[in-house]
Amino acid sequence: MVINQLPLQILTGLAILAFAFFWQTSLSGITRKIVARYHKRYGPKWYQEFRDIFKLMSKTGVTHGWVYDFGVMMALGGIMATVMFMPLMKFTAFPGFDNFFIYVYLFAVGMLGMAMSAVGSGNPLAGIGVMRALTQMVGYEVPFMIVVLAIINGHGTSSLSQLAAIQQQAGVLSWNLVKMPIGTVAAFICLLGMLGKKPFETFIAPAEIASGPMVEYGGKQLGMLMILHQFSIFIEVSLFMNLFLGGAANPLGFALKYMAVYVLASLISQAMGRFKIDQVIKFFYKIPIALAILQAVMVVYLGWGV
Amino acid sequence: MKEVKLFLGPQHPGMHGNSSIHMYVDGDIIKRSYLLPGMLHRGFEKSMERRTWMNNIALIPRICVPEPDPNEMVFALNAEALASVEVPERAHWIRMLVLELARLSAHLMAFGGIGGPTGLYTAMYWAQADRDSILTLFEEITGQRVYHMYITIGGVRKDLPKGIEKKILAFVDDLESRLPDYENLVLNNPSVQARTKDQIMLPAEVVWELGVTGIGMRSSTGKAYDLRKVTPYARYDKVEFDVPTATYSDAHTRLTLKYLEMYQIIRIIRQILDLMPAGKVREKALDGSALRWQVPAGQVYSAVEASRGEYGYYTVSTGGTMPYRVAVRGASFPQATLGIEKYLPGHRIDDAALWFDTMGICSPEIDR
Amino acid sequence: MATADKEKKLKEGWEGISRFFRANSLWMLMYCTGCCAIELPQAMTSRYDMERLGMGPMATPRQADVLLVTGYLSVKTLRRVIYAYEQMSTPKYIVAFGPCTINGGIYHDAATVIKSLDQYLPIDVYIAGCMPKPEAVMNGFQDLIDMIKDKTADGWKRYRDNYDWYKQNQIESLGELRIKDEYHE
Amino acid sequence: MSKINMQLKELTENVGKSYSVLQVDYPTPNQAALDFQPGDVHAVLAYLKGQGFRQMSLLSCVDWIEDGQFQLVYLLFNWEAGLRLQVRTRIDRANPVFTTVTGIYPGAKYYERDVHEFFGVEFNGNPDSSKPLFLENWDDMPPMRKDFDPQAYSDRKYKAREYKTDFNTKAGEGQ
Description:
The structure holds four protein chains of four kinds. By secondary structure, chain A is mostly helical.
C-alpha cells in the first residue's frame, strides 16, 4: 500500500509507532510468563510491562544534569523515528525510505543518546556499562553487516520491503532462512547480542556492574528508557524478520514469526550464563564472523542461495 | 590511567549478604581490593556472655543464616565436653540427620546461587524450589523453617515426628533423580564453563597460607581434609561416605565438588535413616533447672564441618550460669578478609562476584 | 470556581490511576540487611512466586519503589540504608521485617544494633516473625498493596514533613552521617 | 582420661622437653591446651608448624579481668593426624601489647585486627592491626572487654520505642 501525502504518511508512521509499542510491550509480558514457566513459576500478568511503564511515568524523577535529560530525549526520539520508518506487514509510512542503511544510521542516534545520557549521570558503573555496550556493538555489527551485505548483493536491493517481497515469491522456500541457513544462524547470534540477551548480557550484568547504563535512572527517565527498550526490540526483531523470514504479508504471519524469534531468543537467554566482555568479542570474531564470511562467499562468488 | 574506586556491595545485586568490597580498578582489572565487613556485626560474642547456657541455644543459630545448625552443634559439643555428658545414641543420629539436611540445603543454595554472578537465573530458581522442600522437612522435624534451635546440650530437643523418614526418603529420591538436570544446566553449560574453567584459581599454597578450609581446601590439596573424616564427631565414623577431592582448583572444580558432595549427603542420609536406633533423644546434662545450669570450668574448642569449611566455637567457662567467653570461628573468615586483600586483585570486575561466590563466603559468620 | 473543581477532580483521577499502577508494580530494593533476607528467595521462587503481584528485585535504589529492611540494623548498615532510601525516587515505601526493626528483638542489648527503626526512617508495613515465613512476607506485601490503594502508605510524605526530626535522630545515634569509609584499607 | 590420643601425648611431652610449659590440659581426647610464657609463644608456634600444625584455626582472646590479664589463645590444627592444640599465653591487661605471628601464620593478620578491635591488644609488627574493621565511629572502650556494658551503651545511644506498661514486676521477679 503506497501512501503519497505527507500528513497521511506521518499518521501511518504514528500508527506503526503505537502498534509497535502495544505489540512489543504485551509480548514482553507474555514472554515473562513463558520464562516464568521455565523457572517453575506462574509469572506476572501479561500486561505487567504496561503497569511497570506507567508506574514509572507517574513517579518523580531525579535529574543528573542537562546531558542526562537531553540524552534520554534524544535516544527516545531517535528510536521512535527509526520505528516510524519500519515496514509493518503491508504498510510503509515513507515508501522509498526503507533502505536498510537508514535504520543503521537512525538507530545509532538513539544509541548515542543513550550512551550520552548514561555517562552524563556520572556514575562510574554507567560509564563501564556504556563502554561495554559499545564494545559489544563492535563485536556483533561486523558479522551482521557481512551477512546483510551478502543478502543485498545477492538480491540486488537494500530496501527492506523489496527484500521481503522477493522472499514472499515462492512461500517458505524463498526465505533467506532456507536459502542462506548459515548466514541466518550467524545473524541470529548477532541478534542475541543486539537484544542484550544472555550470553551477551555483559552491558547490563546486574551482578557485576549493577545494571550498567541504567544504574542512575529512576522515575520518568527510567520509564522512557523502558519504552525505548521496547521500541529497540521491535526494530531489531523486525529487521531480522524482514531480512531472513520473508517479512510478513498478513497479521497472523507477522505475529507468529515475531513471537517465534523473540521467544526463542528469550528462552536461549534463560539457559545461558553471561560471558565476560572479552569473551564476547573473542566469540563474535570467531564463530559468527566465520559463518558470515562463509555465507558471503557462497552468495557473492558461488551464487548459491540467490 | 587513573584508578577508579568501585564498590561491590553492601547494596549490590552481585553481593550475597551485607558486606562491601572496595575495589580500585584500572580499566577492567582490579588493582587493589579490601573487604569492609561489620555491616552485620551484632556483637554476638558479647551477647552470649550475657545469656545463660540454655538461652544461648536460641541466640546462636542467627550467626550464620544459610546454614544455622553447625552453630547449635558446636555449642552443644563444647558444653558437653566441659560437663562430660554422654549423649544418647539416637540423639547422635538425629543430629547427623539435621546437619546433613542443613548441608544439603546450603549446598543447593550455593550451587544454584552461581546463577547470580553468572546470570543463569534458572539455576537459582530451581535450586531454591528444592531448598524449599528441605525447609518444609525442617519445619516438620523442628517446628522452624530456618532457625531450628533443635540441637541442645545433652541431645536434641525432641524426637523425630512419626513418618518423617518416608518423607525424607521421598524427597531425597526425587532430588537425586533430578540432580543430573542441574549438572546439564550448570556444569555442562558452555557459557558457565567459559566463566568458571581456568578462572579464579585457588592454589594449594594459598590454601595453607590463608587457612582456607572446606571445599576450597579439598579442591586444591587433593586430600580428604574433611572434619567428618579427620576427627569424626557424632556418629560419622559409623557411616560410609566419600569425600570428593581435586588437585586443580578453579571455580568449576569447586562447583563440581559441591555437586558431587550432594550425592554423598544423600548417601549419608539414607544410611542414617537405615541405621538409626530407637531410644532416648535427650540426656539431662546437669542438675537443676535448665536455665540455672552451671557448666563446669574449662576452655575447649570444637569444630564441625559446615558446608563452607571448619566451623568452630572456643568456649570458656568459669563454672557460672553463663559462658565466660565464646569465640566464633567463621568458616569463611580467612578467604573473605585476607583472601580478598591479597588474591582478588588481578581479576577482572566481572569476576569479583563470582570470586566471592565460589570461595563460599558467608558474611554473617565473618561479622558475627 | 468550576474550573478549579474540575482540575481538582482531574488531579484526583490521575492520582487514582497512578496509585493503581504503583500498587501493582512494586520494585523492591533487596538490601539484605539481616537474616530475614533468607526467606525472600523462597517468596520469590516457585512456591510463592512474588512476581504474580508484579513485584521484582531491582539493582539500584534509583530504580526501586520499596525498600526492604530485612531484619536488624547495625549502625554501619543504618547509615547505608539512609543513603539508599534518600536516593530512591518518590513515592517510596519501606517494609520492615522481624522484631529487630521494631524494638531490637533478640539483639536488644547489643551495642552495635539499633533498637527502633521508625526513629530514623518512616515505615509503612511491619512484618512479624523471626524470621517471617514466606506466607507472612506475601501477606505483608499484600497489605502494602492495599495501603497504597487506599492512600495510607504515606511514609515518604512523613519523612518529607518531619525531615528535621528524622535527621536529628539519625545524627544523635550515628554521629556524622556522611562518613569516608576508607579508614580500614 | 584414658582415651587421650597417644600421638598427642607424645607431642606435648616433646614440646615440654624444649620449652617450658606452664600447664597441660586435655579438654577432649584429641585436643591439648598448653600454657606458655609470652616470650615462648613464637618459638613454640614455629616449632609446631614444622610438626604438621599447618593451620591456625583461630586467634582469640579472653579477658580475665579479675587477674588483670588478657589470655591469647592460638588454636592450631593438624589435618593429617586430626590433632588440635590450644597454645595459650597471658599478657598484662593494663598494657596489652604482643608481637604479631603473621610471620609464621600469615592468615593471622585479620584475626589480630579482630582481637585489637574487640579487646584493644596491640600487635607489634602488624601495621594494619590498629585500623578499625567491624566498627565504625566507635566511641567507647573495646566492646569485648568484660567491663563494657553493651546494654548501657545501647540505651544511651539508640532511641527505643516507648511502651505503655500494663504490668509492673515485683522486685526480683522476671530477672
